Amino acid sequence: MAPGLPSTTSLACFCQKLNRLKPLEGSSMETSLQRCLSTLDLTLLGVGGMVGSGLYVLTGTVAKQMAGPAVLVSFSVAALASLLAALCYAEFGARVPRTGSAYLFTYVSMGELWAFLIGWNVILEYLIGGAAVARAWSGYLDSMFSHRIRNFTEAHVGVWHIPFLAHNPDFLAAGIILLASALVSCGARISSWLNHAFSAISLVIILFIIIMGFILAHPHNWSPEEGGFAPFGFSGILAGTATCFFAFVGFDVIAASSEEARNPKRAVPIAIAMSLGLVASAYILVSTVLTLMVPWHSLNPDSALADAFYQRGYSWAGFIVAAGSICAMNTVLLLNIFSGPRILYAMATDGLFFQVFAHVHPRTQVPMVGILVFGVLMAFMALLLDLEALVQFLSIGTLLAYTFVATSIIVLRFQKSPSSSSPSLASPGPVAKEYNSFQDHTQLVGPEQSLAPEPGQLRPALRPYLGFLDRCSSGSTVAWALGVMVASAITLGCVLVFGVSALHLPNWGYILLLLLSTIVFVLSLLVLGAHQQQRQQDIFQVHSPPNTYSISAQPVPFAFAPSSSTMSG
User: Fold this and answer.
1) 562: exposed, middle or buried (C-beta count within 10 Å: 0-12, 13-18, 19+)?
2) Is 324 exposed, middle or buried (0-12, 13-18, 19+ CB in 10 A)?
3) Which run of H or of E encompasses 342?
4) ∠ CA(105), CA(125), CA(177), 5° rounding?
């Protein structure tokens, strides 16, 4: 071997390190962070993360340009798809009550390399998303004062025409980010109180919009004379669904906060379900009253809700809507700064980033260094950079994280439970019970349990018919079926989204590809369902996770569709 080149043994060792998994620790409730968040706190964190400027801008954009009054159908379908992804986060949050969200979930099931990539993907998502929200907040406030701030900046600083830089520096956006970072560094309880206040104001204003909207509703606006309920047809509803899906991005802040929850195994699933239900109801009802107040074709996409009240002669209500938009963007900005440093903290704790980011302040019990560095970087991006090009990649990164979480939960469900070999003293139920006699012990580990198939093995009832699947090593069939299902799901999604014209295929080729990808997808799904899954009675679990993944993975190709939008929360 030439000198200086790594040996085969060292390369093999390096590859093993890339694939090593993070063990599920029995003492998962022990943490240097402060466990102070209740179920209500987590629920409002999720609501604040999802109800952002999207409610005030996205509803009008989709109704005017894509779906018409059928925007409520688009939001309903998007909410269902988001629920399936959220259920995967809920189960992982209950199983692994540590901060890290998609990064940690990938680490415990798929390996270190994938976790590292997903971790940085999530960090960039929070970083760019927070800077974009701060710029939107600044622009919205500036528009309320007739753009005096922008005009002052252009007059005294000038207009830039440099690639990758903004047209002018946004000092207001950078300032609000630094202020929010200082508040978040005061502790999780302070951040939760601020989120409570802004979320409560936002929910009250949303309730006001819904009540006033139904009072001012004109059912004639859905009549055929105005274009009907679905003027763009099914394709418009589908395009609207792809865009509306990103309105529900933000529930992962609950999973990122699970290490600071008092009872994460119970609180995380409940908070995710409640927050998603509240936000879905808000989006559907607001989009309903918006298209009933004024005809969909007369909506202003930039400020649909405020403009609808102006058209009906209630200009004072427009100021209330503007206040709600400001409060909603405040919550999204706070939660981006709250969640991002905790992903850095999780990676630093695992040795995948500088150890200084794992330092927790002894008084506030928050990752102080991570918050300060993250806030300064976000402020720099909001101050100088042109974020429009970067924001286009947020949708791809978000859906990639969702896909990995859904895949990880399937991998974990077909693995042998670590509690069966090394029970945790903190786990409830018979596992932690102290045996008083030999009869007690035999009752807990009797012949029924000893003969039960392990996760990843073929179900006993199907062995007479599918015995050939048992010839492979335990777990390899599941791994192959999962890989084939992922590939066929992506192929099927691309075929449905892009269609014949984009794929440059003849009609028979398009139909053949559609049928083959569907058949392969269904067969791989059946193979997964034929194998034994891991069951734990003391935590929340998603039933039939392959089915959940199969639907929640489908929105991934929508990120590449021309009609997709990156407007989130």
Assistant:
1) exposed
2) buried
3) helix 315-349
4) 125
Residue 282: partners with Cβ closer than 8 Å, 6 or more residues away:
51, 55, 203, 206, 210
What is the dotted CATH code of the domain comprising 34-415?
1.20.1740.10
331: CB partners within 8 A, 6+ apart: 47, 48, 49, 51, 52, 195, 198, 199, 202
Structure tokens at 112: 């270190």
Does the pTM exceed 0.85?
no
Contacts (Cβ under 8 Å, ≥6 apart) of 277:
none
Other beta carbons within 10 Å of 426: 11
Amino acid at the residue 198:
F
Per-residue burial over 459-489, b if 16 or more Cβ lie within 10 Å, else e, is: eeeeeeebeebeeeebbebbeebbebbbebb
Q: What are the residue boundaries of the structural domains of the chain, listed by start? A: 34-415
364 class by beta-carbon count within 10 Å (0-12 exposed, 13-18 middle, 19+ buried): middle
CA angle 186, 190, 193 (to 5 degrees): 165
E-state strands within 346-493: none
- Do residues 254 and 272 make contact, with C-beta atoms less than 8 angstroms apart? yes
The series of mean pLDDT values per 10 residues for the chain, 569 residues long, is 65 77 68 84 91 81 88 91 87 84 88 91 90 85 79 81 80 93 92 91 92 90 86 85 84 88 89 93 93 88 83 85 87 92 92 90 90 94 78 74 84 67 38 37 41 68 73 73 84 74 76 90 84 70 58 52 45
First-residue to last-residue Cα distance in the chain: 56
